[in-house]
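WARN no homologs supplied; continuing
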Amino acid sequence: MSVEKNTRKLEKDIVRDFSSRMSYASYLQLPTLLSAQQPVSNPEHHDELLFIIQHQTTELWLKLVLHELRSAAAWLRSDDLGSALKAIARVKHIQKTLTEQWSVLATLTPTEYSQFRGFLGNSSGFQSSQYRAVEFVLGNKNRKMLPVFESDPEAYQQLSNVLEAPSIYDEFLAYLHRQGFDIPASLLERDVTKAHQFCPELVPVFKHIYENAADNWGAYEACEELVDLEDNFQLWRFRHLRTVQRTIGMKGGTGGSSGAAFLQKALELTFFPELFAVRTEIGQ
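OK structure emitted
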């Protein structure tokens, strides 16, 4: 069928009156969402809108990441590995989107950013409570981060709750224990408010799973999904670092950190160290 005058007709059954019906805009609360971009530069700088939207969309994706990871942890607790892996698979797709987003912010040149950076005060991505919560859920617990959020009771409480709950790795190891794998008691009884640290006794467990994948397919698949999670997270961290370097060089961060130097150290953090260490042992 051809389209006359390059204009398609509005089909007769398409709803037009939303005076008493829910619309797309009302369901998504678009008036609220689209009015949340409030540049603070004076005079308003053209590129500040990009900076705001970049960070707001990141926060929306982080909200979904937290939702999925918490659900995955709950499903692991109830031995529903399939549902947990489905949630993790969704998180992996979100991570790819978050990493690609850095290419948009990277179009902001040092000159352009410098023209409104001073208006940001001490606001900094370092203060993202949702980002910290994701790190905590994945196992990079750090109680010393909490004072940054004391002025925001809701964020402080959220982080405190995540700090005190088992990480997704804790839940996975507990799941493996219930499935009959010889998980070290020190890990099953550890203080979950602290960051997970490398446990050499766990490596033989993963070596057995990997070298007998056909007999332990669920556990084997879960190990690889967690490796993907960490790989994706490290790629996100790296892209963050490189974007900061190309935008402000080695200047200090607006929130008081050393900037790129501080972000560089994050690349040394790990979530699931034994899942990477086991690769050296497989086949030996």
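The chain is about 55% helix and 0% strand.
OK
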